[in-house]
């Protein structure tokens, strides 16, 4: 009887002990013989698959860097911290990275998950380099001194499209269509901005720039209006349900110019909605998969990755995590020390010659990556996406 | 039986077994565990207060302490709805989201300070809860549960769909300010103390509510909704109040969360989080405040401890929960019911130095009776009352009169419609036609709690006591509708509320003594033997100070001695001026007590008069009594 009465006490006591021991284990720090860099990624949760691939990619990159002599004569040590793709866990993960006194952080994947973490890193003056967080506002809404990203901003593909349309496709009359969502409008605006110098030089013109209404089924009025402008290329920056219907109805109305979608416009469902005969040949501006990247580092990266994990990452984002590690390592080498302010400064100004898996890594003053590598993909005759040669 | 109900029953059963084992009828044990709890409380307060100063506690662990606080606050808020009232709310994160988004939107758009938004967020969440739950609050068990899942998901999806560009869609809102309490609250440590100070205030308020007529009304509803309503508890009102209060506290948590994170997005308010809150309350013990805190501790600490196990951590977490539920099905720290002394002492300590003992002072109970009814006047008149279920006419044009100051017995074969008639009188069913006049006023179709408040108290054929409450608390239910104190009064212990509570306690104790249960006042009702449960039910009805006592087969299951005692009790109540209407199959009892007998068959009266007349009436003999030789 007495034992039973005290069981509450014992449970409480045991819990306290467990907590203390764990806290001690976590709190204990090792002397700095390595350079500790944290990877904050969704190791569990809805995007665990992405997180696991990011972890593998970063570990492969770390191994390559360490094999080549490390950074400032020290080995890189990766500390993986799980944010479970959840804003609350993300804030905790950031706090953990801060407590563990890492030199810099790679992370994280989702934009709304990165946001609270970036705030904490900023407050603690710790450099963090995002790899899958593409929301424009991360770098544009707030002044952040210590936040960078190796992935492109949502609207960066617009920039790529502008260049590609004029220089590769030689388009004289360009139509741009969006759906008024923040994302699609951002991409469209960025494409327009990229075209401005060409327009000034008389090389091309924008013949159509307008929004459609999402969730509609009948776009005949839009298509008729578009046809009258006689475009050479037609860029749609919205989402795949509308994209599929639009291309189908446009082809039925006799509009035959090349169709280019943003990276939300084309997927398997797009092919289903439009039908393979119509979808074939549709293009998309997208971040390249590592399979389609051919830099020297990419070759080493791919062979080591294949050796260790048997199959390459199936999404573009984990490779940007590896890029982030290359960027941080490069910046530390250039700065010659591991002080946060020096690293941030090096990332902004001294990155000339630093190479990552996807190519050179340079950052803008606001922390966005310059000249993000994009590729033009095309739907082949089987309905699969291939890099356009 | 639906899932929610059976789960509640299982937990309640486990809790009662636990109590049984502990009690074994000794006062020392009761005292000891109360003292243990008190000691634990002190340890917990000290631990929470000094935790951030331990050398190995860095900002990371302080932040975990902060989120432990947030989950405690959320757990406490859900505990009101789920633990106290037994309503299965699986969309509680919706209210949290409303609080967080109210703060985020008003702060970023209009730059209203966070501390001003703290009460505003609570009000917004409470108002939202009232709007969405008012139309569905009558739903029972599983159905309400499903609706709440819907509410939670609708809130989250609305946030994602970015209505009017207010919520920022899937990316949410960023750039939320920090709160200012003289100094800006920014560091982990400041937030930690901020949230725990707020929790202390909330717990203080909740404990006071638990020990008031409001908290008890919530528990009555959880234990037995029908009985609570028939004894004068406005079930709809208290359920809604629980939802609104729970949502408001969740709204508070949302405000703090938003300002701590500085950015919010719909990912924080998923169904998974709602079910986690559910775990907190079930794990801790339904309706138990220390249990909820412990549950929140387990929910926040376990995943952190297992975080090193990466993808397996949720499996271990699940396993740990499972083990706890197997070994402590009633929760880690089930609610201890307060003894009468404890209830009493919380009321008088503040205003008087000495502790008054329960029952010392005899307060005059404010009698709700209008002018005392005169002997022989018609107290209850039924005129042409009719009710049918589908094609079956249960009560067919019934006319009868119950006279004041008399015991009227309703007899008849099974299926005659006697209990249906009782349910019509007490408002559980509404008659299709006809009027029911009580003290000259038509009460037909009024809700049960209103009828009860007018002075009709009832018992049930299959005993409906509140098993996991003490006998005293059971009886206090009758006094519920005689009290007036609402939320503010109960929270601030205003003098009128204290007086009222004391009056209620004393009167209820007298009602218990009246039926011979004075010694068992602090025992759980579930621990009473069958016969005493009947007495408890009568005591509870008496506590309502009724004019008319409606008893449904009070003698069923009683032995001869107990039946004799019951007859004695009924007669003495009669002498005190009470009128009684009873359904009875025990003709011996009817013979002993009844002044007037109504015989019912197939929803109609076939005869009425004295018992002696009935015995000679051939119709009655054929329909019910049978011949003497039988």
Structure description:
With 389 residues, chain A is α/β, with parallel strands linked by helices. Chain A has 14 helices and 14 strands. Chain A folds into two domains: 34-152 and 293-373, Rossmann fold (3-Layer(aba) Sandwich), CATH 3.40.50.2300; 156-286, Rossmann fold. In chain A, the strands form three sheets. In chain A, strands 7-6-8-9-10-13-14 form a seven-stranded mixed β-sheet, with helices on one face. In chain A, helix 2 (48-67) crosses helix 12 (296-309), helix 6 (156-167) runs parallel beside helix 7 and helix 13 (317-335) crosses helix 14. Chain B folds into three domains: 3-336, ABC transporter involved in vitamin B12 uptake, BtuC, CATH 1.10.3470; 376-455 and 551-630, P-loop containing nucleotide triphosphate hydrolases (Rossmann fold), CATH 3.40.50; 469-545, no CATH class. Chain B is built from 24 helices and 14 strands. Chain B has helices at 3-23, 27-50, 59-84, 93-110, 114-133, 141-161, 188-210, 213-223, 225-230, 235-261, 271-284, 289-305, 313-327, 340-348, 418-425, 448-454, 471-479, 487-492, 495-514, 530-542, 560-575, 587-593, 611-616, 618-625; strands at residues 173-174, 180-181, 183-184, 263-264, 378-389, 392-403, 407-411, 433-438, 441-442, 456-458, 548-552, 579-583, 596-601, 604-609. In chain B, the strands form four sheets. In chain B, strands 10-11-12-7-13-14 form a six-stranded mixed β-sheet, with helices on both faces. A four-stranded antiparallel β-sheet of chain B has the order 6-5-8-9, covered by helices on one side. In chain B, strands 1-4 form a two-stranded antiparallel sheet. In chain B, helix 3 (59-84) crosses helix 12. Chain B starts with a helix and ends in a 5-residue tail after the last helix. In chain B, 51% of the residues are buried. At the A-B interface, helix 1, helix 3 and helix 4 of A face helix 2, helix 3, helix 10, strand 4 and helix 12 of B.
């Amino acid at each position: 009887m007495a034992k039973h009465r005290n069981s509450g006490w014992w449970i409480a006591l045991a819990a306290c002990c467990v907590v203390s021991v764990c806290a001690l284990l976590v709190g204990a720090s090792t002397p700095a013989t390595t350079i500790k860099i944290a990877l904050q990624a969704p190791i569990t949760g809805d995007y665990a698959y992405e997180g696991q691939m990011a972890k593998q990619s970063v570990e492969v990159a770390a191994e390559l860097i360490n094999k080549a002599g490390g950074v400032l004569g020290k080995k890189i040590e990766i500390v993986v911290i799980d944010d479970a793709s959840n804003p609350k866990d993300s804030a905790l993960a950031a706090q953990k990275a801060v407590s563990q006194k890492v030199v810099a952080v790679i992370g994280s994947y989702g934009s709304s998950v990165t946001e609270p973490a970036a705030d904490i890193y900023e407050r603690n003056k710790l450099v963090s380099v995002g790899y899958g967080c593409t929301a424009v506002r991360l770098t544009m809404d707030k002044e952040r001194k210590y936040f960078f990203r190796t992935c492109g901003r949502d609207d960066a593909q617009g920039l790529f499209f502008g260049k590609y349309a004029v220089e590769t496709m030689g388009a004289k009359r360009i139509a741009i269509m969006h759906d008024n969502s923040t994302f699609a409008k951002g991409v469209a605006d960025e494409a327009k901005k990229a075209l401005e110098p060409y327009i000034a030089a008389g090389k091309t013109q924008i013949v159509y720039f307008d929004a459609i209404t999402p969730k509609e089924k009948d776009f005949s009025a839009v298509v008729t209006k578009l046809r009258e402008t006689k475009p050479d290329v037609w860029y749609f920056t919205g989402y795949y349900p509308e994209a599929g219907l639009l291309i189908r109805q446009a082809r039925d109305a006799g509009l035959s110019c090349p169709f280019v979608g943003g990276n939300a416009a084309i997927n398997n469902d797009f092919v289903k909605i439009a039908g393979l005969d119509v979808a074939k040949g549709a293009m998309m501006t997208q971040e390249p998969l590592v399979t389609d990247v051919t830099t020297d580092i990419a070759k080493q990266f791919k062979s080591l990755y294949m050796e260790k994990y048997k199959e390459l990452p199936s999404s573009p984002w984990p490779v940007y995590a590896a890029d982030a590690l290359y960027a941080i390592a490069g910046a530390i080498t250039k700065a010659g020390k591991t002080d946060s302010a020096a690293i941030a400064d090096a990332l902004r100004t001294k990155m000339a010659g630093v190479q990552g898996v996807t190519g050179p890594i340079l950052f803008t003053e606001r922390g966005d990556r310059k000249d993000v590598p994009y590729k033009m993909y095309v739907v082949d005759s089987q309905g699969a996406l291939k890099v356009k040669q | 039986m639906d899932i929610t109900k059976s789960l509640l029953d299982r937990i309640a059963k486990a809790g009662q077994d636990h109590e049984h084992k502990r009690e074994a009828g000794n006062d020392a044990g009761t005292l000891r565990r109360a003292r243990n709890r008190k000691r634990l409380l002190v340890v917990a307060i000290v631990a929470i207060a000094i935790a951030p100063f331990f050398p190995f506690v860095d900002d990371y662990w302080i932040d975990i302490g902060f989120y432990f606080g947030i989950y405690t606050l959320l757990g406490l808020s859900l505990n009101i709805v789920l633990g106290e009232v037994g309503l299965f709310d699986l969309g509680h994160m919706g209210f949290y989201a409303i609080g967080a988004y109210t703060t985020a939107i008003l702060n970023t758009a209009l730059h209203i300070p966070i501390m001003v938004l703290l009460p505003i967020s609570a009000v917004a969440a409470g108002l939202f809860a009232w709007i969405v739950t008012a139309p569905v609050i009558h739903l029972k068990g599983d159905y309400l549960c499903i609706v709440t899942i819907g509410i939670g998901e609708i809130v989250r999806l609305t946030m994602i769909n970015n209505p009017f560009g207010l919520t920022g869609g899937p990316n949410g809102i960023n750039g939320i300010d920090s709160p200012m309490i003289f100094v800006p609250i920014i560091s982990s440590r400041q937030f930690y103390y901020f949230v725990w100070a707020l929790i202390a205030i909330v717990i203080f308020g909740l404990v006071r509510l638990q020990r008031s007529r409001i908290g008890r009304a919530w528990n009555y509803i959880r234990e037995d909704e029908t009985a609570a309503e028939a004894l004068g508890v406005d079930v709809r009102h208290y359920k809604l109040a629980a939802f609104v209060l729970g949502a408001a506290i969740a709204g508070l948590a949302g405000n703090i969360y938003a300002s701590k994170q500085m950015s919010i997005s719909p990912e924080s308010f998923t169904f998974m989080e709602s079910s986690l809150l559910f775990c907190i309350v079930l794990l801790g013990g339904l309706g138990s405040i220390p249990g909820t805190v412990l549950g929140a501790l387990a929910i926040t600490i376990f995943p952190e401890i297992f975080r090193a196990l990466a993808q397996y951590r949720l499996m271990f977490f699940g396993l740990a929960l499972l083990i706890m539920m197997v070994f402590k099905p009633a929760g880690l720290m089930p609610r201890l019911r307060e003894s009468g002394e404890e209830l009493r002492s919380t009321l008088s300590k503040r205003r008087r130095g000495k502790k008054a003992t329960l029952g010392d002072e005899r307060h005059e109970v404010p009698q709700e009776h209008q002018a005392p009814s005169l002997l022989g006047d018609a107290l209850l008149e039924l005129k042409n009352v009719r009710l049918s279920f589908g094609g079956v006419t249960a009560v067919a044009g019934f006319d009868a009169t119950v006279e004041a100051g008399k015991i009227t017995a309703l007899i008849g074969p099974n299926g005659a419609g006697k209990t249906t008639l009782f349910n019509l009188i007490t408002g559980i069913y509404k008659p299709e036609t006809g009027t029911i006049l009580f003290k000259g006023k038509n009460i037909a179709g009024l809700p049960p709690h209103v009828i009860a408040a007018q002075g009709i108290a009832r018992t049930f054929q299959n005993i409906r006591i509140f098993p996991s409450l003490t006998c005293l608390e059971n009886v206090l239910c009758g006094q519920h509708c005689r009290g007036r104190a609402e939320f503010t009064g109960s929270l601030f212990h205003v003098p009128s509320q204290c007086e009222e509570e004391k009056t209620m306690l004393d009167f209820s104790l007298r009602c218990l003594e009246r039926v011979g249960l004075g010694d068992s006042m602090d025992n759980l009702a579930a621990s009473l033997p069958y016969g005493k449960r009947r007495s408890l039910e009568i005591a509870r009805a008496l506590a309502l100070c009724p004019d008319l006592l409606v008893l449904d087969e009070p003698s069923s299951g009683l032995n001869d001695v107990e039946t004799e005692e019951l007859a004695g009790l009924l007669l003495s109540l009669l002498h005190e001026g009470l009128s009684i209407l009873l359904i009875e199959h025990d003709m011996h009892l009817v013979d002993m007590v009844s002044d007037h007998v109504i015989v019912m068959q197939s929803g109609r009266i076939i005869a009425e008069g004295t018992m002696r007349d009935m015995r000679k009436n051939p119709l009655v003999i054929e329909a019910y009594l049978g011949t003497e030789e039988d």
